[in-house]
Structures are given as C-alpha cells and as structure tokens.
Give the backbone structure.
Amino acid sequence: MRYQIFGRRTGLRVSEYVLGTANFGTAPTATGADGARAIFDRFVRAGGTTFDSSNIYQAGRPRRSSANCSATSATTSW
C-alpha cells in the first residue's frame, strides 16, 4: 500500500486507495453487517487507512458501522 501525507502540517498518513462504503448496510443490494465487516477488515489488513462514508449511503448505516476503528481516516460529506 502506498501512502501520502494529508496536508502540509498534519502528519496524517493516508492510504492512496480509499474504500467506498456506499454498499455497506442492510438494503437488499447491500453487503449486510457481516459482509461489510469482512470487506473493511480485509482492507485494513492490506494497509488501507482511508475510507469514504456519507450520511446518504444506506441512510447513514456505513458511518455507524465503521465508526469504531481508530486506525483509519474517514472522508465524508454532509
């Protein structure tokens, strides 16, 4: 995994790959909680540190399901 420093003074190291979470949740076309956790865990094991979440994805469920990981950086929109 390759990383970049986010900003000039933050020191925050983020992965160049970003995991999208639009398909995380409980909708019929979504991964479900177990599937989302498996995808997220595999991404983190591969060195991923950055994921995209939004309050419009699956009624905000991806944000809640991935909010417990302190080793990641979230990008989001309101």
Summary: The chain has a mean pLDDT of 75.
